[in-house]
Amino acid sequence: MSFINLGANQENEIQKNQSNFESMGYSVYIIRPEEKEPISKEEWLNYAKNDPEIKIVNGDIEVTNPQTGKKFTYKADNLTYYLYQSEEVTFSYGNGDITVSDPNDEIIFKMLSIAKELDAIVMGDGGVIFNDSYFEKKSKAEKHNENSDKESSKKKNSKWKFWN
């Protein structure tokens, strides 16, 4: 499956939206393009059952509000989550797509692998398409910044060098 390549406008959109990850909710979706059939609930649950990193929960779940400490119970119907490090990241199915709120890069990477299996794409709020080139470009940008920092540091420290 080939993913849509990021254009210059989408790269700018990603950069603008990344600052929103911490300040407000940002959702990323595993979704099929309009010309394809939406992801069915059965497809999603079948995938989830076969992925050892995804768990499916049914029945009553007790949840604690981290701000108030108040506990409440709700009934889960095929709640799916990804165990990332020691955190449970909810992958919510609804209306033909799978939604994750405020994912970091590692979770987006997981979403890309799921999307490939489901013949889908990963799209953020505002229509931003995430694909493998997102990580390649981000990696290149980070390396460029590291090299710039090293060069800048060398220049700053060079005036203090008295001997070789």
Spell the H/E element sequence: HHEHEEEEHEEH
The proportion of residues forming helix, as a percent range, comes to 25-40%
- Spatial order of strands in the largest sheet: 2-3-4-5-1-6-7
Number of strands: 7
Per DSSP, what share of the residues sits in E-state strands of 2 or more residues?
25-35%
Cα-to-Cα separation, first versus last residue: 55 Å
CA radius of gyration: 21 Å
The pLDDT mean sits at: 79
Helix count, DSSP H or I runs of 4 or more residues: 5
Query: What coarse outline follows from CA principal-axis ratios?
Result: globular
- Detail the poorly predicted runs: 1-8, 14-23
Structural class call reads alpha+beta
Oligomer: single chain
Reported for the largest beta sheet, the result is:
7 strands, antiparallel
Integer count of domains: 1
Show the helix and strand layout.
Blueprint: H1 8-18, H2 20-23, E1 27-31, H3 41-50, E2 54-64, E3 71-84, E4 87-94, E5 97-101, H4 105-117, E6 121-124, E7 129-130, H5 132-158
Antiparallel strand pairs: 1-5, 1-6, 2-3, 3-4, 4-5, 6-7
In short:
This protein has 164 residues and is of the alpha+beta class. The protein has helices spanning 8-18, 20-23, 41-50, 105-117, 132-158, and strands at residues 27-31, 54-64, 71-84, 87-94, 97-101, 121-124, 129-130.
Task: Offer a few descriptive terms.
164 residues; alpha+beta; seven-stranded antiparallel sheet; 40% helix; 30% strand; globular; disordered N terminus
Protein model, in words:
With 164 residues, this protein is α+β, with helices and mostly antiparallel strands. The chain has one domain. Helix content is 40%, strand content 30%. It is built from 5 helices and 7 strands; from the N terminus they run H-H-E-H-E-E-E-E-H-E-E-H. The chain has a 7-stranded antiparallel sheet with strand order 2-3-4-5-1-6-7. It is globular. The termini are far apart. The N terminus is likely disordered.
